[in-house]
Amino acid sequence: MNLSNLPKIELHCHLDGSVRPETIIDIARKENIDIPSYDVKEINDLMIAPIECTSLDEYLKRFSLPINIMQSEYSLRRVTYELLEDAAKENVKYMEIRFAPLLHRNKGLEVEKIIESVLMGMKDAEDKYDINANLILSFMKTMPVEGIFEVINIGRKYLGKGVVAVDLCGPEEAGFAKFFVEPMSLAKSYGYRITIHAGETGIGENVLESVELLGAERIGHGVYIKDCKKAYDIIKEKNIALEICPTSNVQTKAVKKISEHPIYDFYKDGIKVTMNTDNRTVSSTNMTNELSAITNEFNIDYEDYKEIYYNSLNACFADEEIKDKLRKYMD
């Protein structure tokens, strides 16, 4: 099975975790931004989380440098374009990019301009490469709820124009879902789709509450449903897709090593698993590498891959026209 040649779909990829180190340096010089080094290797080392990373919190520290340079219309548009360019070159045919607009206001950019800049970068790449993309508006779980309402209301006018969903991300505390019921309910009433980071750090109950309280249609990671029967059962019964990110899960210590990842057990039991990178730079990976790690460890064959591809296709937030294209790539 030639993984490089296979069409791919990615549903869980953070924009600020997927910036080229060379771009960090170039934007810093262009926009007179102070960064720790102008050496590509040193910037690379600062951005990539080691496989020996001790926790999710340590992993998240790698985002401060890229966020620091992603504070202008130019930088946001460029970084988005380059992410899709990199993805297209490894035969990713559809990608859902997620980012938190409120993290990009340090130099006074309005939320509208932040979202529009990313959408323009998406359009630039779609015009040049055989790839389609949509945008998920993320919110840090540590952010005041008032800011979430602001972005949901502003982002509403971009629904159907590249924006498709909302997400909660960042550090995971037990019982976080109850604090976000109102904004997620509002988002759903507007037509946003819902995906939530949950069950990444040993709290399977968070997955259950994300579905029951927040209306999650997909779950980011969800590894720890393995330790919570109610969460496991609701994911299986409702056919809720899990956005699995193997390398990242090792780095954040959701699992100790790839061989202990529950993805294959989930898959064999009928849970709708999908394959993703999470953060291409922070995890020093791409879709081909992620697929290779899983196929080698669990002897996944072409028919297995095809089923996982269709899990992603069926769970994606694209319109029917794009879904038809994605079916044709695999058929």
TrEMBL record:
If you read the UniProt record, what top EC class would you report for this enzyme, in one word? Answer: hydrolase
Q: Could you tell me the keywords of this UniProt record?
A: Hydrolase, Metal-binding, Nucleotide metabolism, Zinc
List the InterPro entries. Answer: A_deaminase (IPR028893), A_deaminase_dom (IPR001365), Ado/ade_deaminase (IPR006330)
This entry's Enzyme Commission designation comes to: 3.5.4.4
Give the superkingdom in one word.
Bacteria
UniProt xrefs under Pfam families: A_deaminase (PF00962)
Query: What CDD domains does the record point to?
Result: ADA (cd01320)
A single Gene Ontology MF term assigned here is: hydrolase activity
Q: Which cofactor does it need?
A: Zn(2+)
Site annotation (Important for catalytic activity) points to 221
Q: Which residues form the Adenosine deaminase domain?
A: 7-328
Q: Which residues bind substrate?
A: 14, 16, 170
Q: Which reaction does it catalyse?
A: 2'-deoxyadenosine + H2O + H(+) = 2'-deoxyinosine + NH4(+); adenosine + H2O + H(+) = inosine + NH4(+)
Residues that bind Zn(2+)? 12, 14, 197, 278
What is written in the cofactor note of this entry? Binds 1 zinc ion per subunit.
Positions annotated as active site in the UniProt record: 200 (proton donor)
The protein's job, in short, is: Catalyzes the hydrolytic deamination of adenosine and 2-deoxyadenosine.
By sequence similarity, the record places it as follows:
Belongs to the metallo-dependent hydrolases superfamily. Adenosine and AMP deaminases family. Adenosine deaminase subfamily.
- Please state what the protein is called: Adenosine deaminase
